[in-house]
Every structure is written in C-alpha cells, then in structure tokens.
Write a structure and sequence with these properties.
This protein has 352 residues and is mainly α. The chain contains 14 helices and no strands.
Length: 352
C-alpha cells in the first residue's frame, strides 16, 4: 500500500494544524481557576526549559568562527532589529482604519522578535547560499533577541505591551536569560545527550510551545479579549503582513546587492533577515504581555506560516539560478528539490 504523504502543493506542516487545534481547544475549554494556575506554572517552567535547550544547542565555537563574516551578521541584525521595527512603527498610520490598536501592538511586537535559525539554514541550503553564514546569523540573532527584544518592547510598546516594568525585566532575566546561560555553561556535558536525543527533545520543544499557546489563549478567552477582533480586521492584518514580508524580502535581497555581497551571501541575508521566530517570540510574549499575550502572538503565528510558504517558493526558484556566482554544487533533479523543500518547510515549522 502506498504511504500517504503531505500534498506537495500545500507547504503547511501538520504542526501548524496542531497550533490551530490548540487555539481551538483554548477557545472551547479555557483553563480557569486552579487549572489556570497549574497551566500558568507549567507554561513558565516550559519557557525556561525551552531557553535552556536553546543555550545548550548553540555552538559557541561556530559562533566565534562566524565573527569573521561580521559585515553579513551586522546586516542581518540591522534588518531584524532596525528595519523591521521601523516598518512596524510605520504601520501605526493604519490604526484604526485597517488595524485596531491591539492587533497593531501584536504586529509591532512581531517586528521586534529575533530571526529563525533552522528555517534560515534550511532555505539557504536549498537555494545554494552561504549555509555557515546562515547558521551564525540565525544564532547571533537569537542570542541578541534575548536582550534586544525586551528592551525594544519597553521602548516602543511601553505600558501597552502588558505593562513592561522592573518586574517584567526580572521575569525575563529569570525565565529567559538565566536558563539560556545555564544551557551554554552546561553544553560541554549535556551537548552530546541533546544531539543523541534530538528527535525526542524536538517533541518536547513543540509540546512546550503548544502549552504556552494554550495558556496564553486561555487567558485571552477568560479576559474576553477575542470579542475585540472581527474577521474583517483579521483579513486586514493578513494584507498588512503580506506587504511587510514582501518589503523585507526586497530590502534584504537588493539591499545586500547594493552593499556588495555576492550571491551566496545575499541568499543567507535574505532568508535570515526577512523572517521572525515563532519559537522565541511565543515565550517572550507570554512574559511581556501576560493575559494579553493571545492577541500579541496572533500576528506572529500568521506571519510565521506566511513566511514559510513564501520562502519555500523563493528558495526553490533560487536553486535554479544560473548565476556564475552561485554555489558550484550539482543541481538536484526537480523532484528531489521538491521533496527537499517540503522536508525543509516541515523542519523549519517545527523549530520555529
């Protein structure tokens, strides 16, 4: 019997469906009372464990080796933490005509989170770009985001971002930075275990994120936040995010060309500089926004799936480039590239 596979024309990973199902569960059966306290405590522990794993996985040696290509990494960081936020601030002009204030705050928050790691690597590899640079760029962005995202949220969102305060800063340090640094310090001893059990820990990763989503959306349901958003407003948000993604894809590609980067580096810059991490953004939002986290992460969840679908198409087209500066690797047959693309999209979605 022929094994069932995910349709090639639908680059939507089942994990996205799991996220949607989790939101539906929170809408139908939100955690209340003692159950909400248990879910909140479990979510806090899950966030800390996630960032411990992030720290334990980040190779310090690879990061140091990547410093040789500092111009590329500065370019990616500028796209992620300067250009993106400026575009987010520009979207304020769409309030309240196209976006309500609460969705605008979520949109602005998505522009502040770091870039992805795995999806940047996957799509750069498919497009025959500079994969080592993509590894380092994504790692640097994630590391910088632990500090820059909360600071930018404090400066740009202020009290509207769930009441950013000294207490919020303490929570960020304890839940995000301390576990991350602990993972880095213990990497020498736990790195091998994590590598050997990568698949199992991947399920732990995804389960933790699902728990964070359930807790955030349960709080939103209890607070009645969802009554503030209509289908028309959500459609408007999708349009705005599509424009945002198109602008960043153009800026990273043509901007890198103007700065004199070769094709392989431009590919890495485009895929590392145009995306936002769901895996990093969700835990940060749960700390920064509290009961308002559900609306804060909704734009990020939508943008995450959109960027995967669009970048899968772009990476496949880039793999057929005949530019002399392209990687000298032998181009795989079309059906092999299609399968590789579907696999990369699935891996990228699961890792955020």
């Amino acid at each position: 019997m022929k094994r069932l596979t995910w349709p090639s024309w639908m680059p939507i990973d089942p994990y996205i469906l799991a996220l949607i199902a989790t939101v539906g569960l929170a809408a139908l059966l939100p955690a209340r009372g003692a159950a909400a306290d248990v879910a909140s405590g479990a979510s806090t522990a899950a966030v800390a464990f996630l960032f411990f794993l992030y720290g334990a996985r980040l190779s310090t040696r690879e990061a140091m080796d990547g410093l040789r290509h500092w111009r590329l990494h500065v370019t990616v960081l500028a796209c992620t933490f300067v250009v993106f936020p400026l575009l987010g601030l520009a979207a304020r002009g769409l309030v309240p005509v196209l976006l309500p204030q609460n969705l605008f705050e979520g949109l602005l928050f998505l522009t502040l989170v770091p870039s992805t790691i795995q999806s940047s690597i996957a799509f750069t590899s498919i497009a025959r770009g500079n994969v080592p640079a993509a590894i380092c760029a994504g790692s640097f962005s994630s590391l910088a985001g632990i500090v820059l995202t909360p600071l930018l949220a404090a400066g740009l969102l202020g009290n509207s971002g769930g009441g950013f305060s000294a207490d919020s800063l303490v929570k960020i340090v304890l839940q995000l930075l301390v576990p991350f640094l602990a993972g880095q310090l213990l990497r020498r001893w736990v790195g091998g275990f994590i590598t050997r059990h990568k698949k199992i820990l991947g399920y732990v990763d995804r389960g933790s994120i699902l728990l964070v989503v359930y807790t955030a959306f349960s709080e939103g349901m209890v607070q009645g936040i969802w009554h503030q958003v209509s289908a028309v407003r959500l459609a408007g948000l999708l349009v705005v995010e599509a424009v945002l993604l198109a602008i960043m894809l153009a800026v990273t590609w043509y901007g890198a060309k103007a700065l004199g980067f070769n094709r392989a580096d431009r590919v890495a810059i485009q895929f590392a500089g145009s995306k936002k991490s769901l895996a990093s953004g969700l835990p940060m939002a749960s700390v920064l926004f509290g009961a308002h986290a559900s609306l804060a992460v909704l734009p990020l969840m939508l943008f995450h799936q959109m960027q995967l679908m669009v970048c899968a198409v772009i990476a496949k087209r880039r793999s057929r480039d005949t530019d002399d500066t392209a990687s000298p690797e032998v181009t795989a047959p079309a059906e092999d590239r299609a399968e590789e693309t579907r696999t990369a999209v699935g891996t990228a979605t699961r890792s955020g």
